[in-house]
C-alpha cells in the first residue's frame, strides 16, 4: 500500500528541510519516501510506502496537529 501525501506550501526548501527531520518518525510509522513532486500551485506531493495503515494515520494526525495543511490518500495497486 502507498500513501500520497499532499501539502500546500509556498516554500519547498523550508518544507524539505523540515520533512528531512522526520526520518525517525516516518520509520517508526512504517513509512518510507518513494518520490516527491511539486506542482505549479505550490503543492508538494510525496509518495510513501506504507507498512502499517494504522501507524501511518497516526503519523498524519500528528503532522496535522503541528499545523501542516495535510491531505492524504491511501493507494493500492490493482
How would you describe this structure to a colleague?
The protein has 78 residues and is an alpha+beta fold. 36% of the residues lie in helices and 37% in strands. The model has no long low-confidence stretch (mean pLDDT 91).
Observed structural traits:
single chain, 78 residues, alpha+beta, 4 strands, 36% helix, 37% strand
The count of strands amounts to 4
The portion of residues forming beta strands comes to 35-45%
What strand order characterises the main sheet?
A: 2-3-1-4
The major β-sheet equals: 4 strands, antiparallel
What is the global morphology? globular
In percent, how helical is the residue content? 25-40%
**Helix and strand element order:** EHHEEHE
Describe, in short, the structure shown:
With 78 residues, this protein is α+β, with helices and mostly antiparallel strands. It is 36% helix and 37% strand. The chain contains three helices and four strands.
Amino acid at each position: 500500500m502507498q500513501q500520497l501525501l499532499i501539502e500546500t506550501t509556498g516554500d519547498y526548501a523550508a518544507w524539505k528541510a523540515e520533512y528531512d527531520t522526520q526520518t525517525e518518525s516516518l520509520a517508526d510509522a512504517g513509512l518510507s519516501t518513494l518520490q516527491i513532486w511539486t506542482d505549479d500551485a505550490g503543492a508538494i506531493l510525496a509518495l510513501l510506502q506504507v507498512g502499517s495503515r494504522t501507524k501511518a494515520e497516526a503519523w498524519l494526525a500528528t503532522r496535522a496537529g503541528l499545523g501542516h495543511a495535510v491531505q492524504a490518500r491511501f493507494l493500492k495497486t490493482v
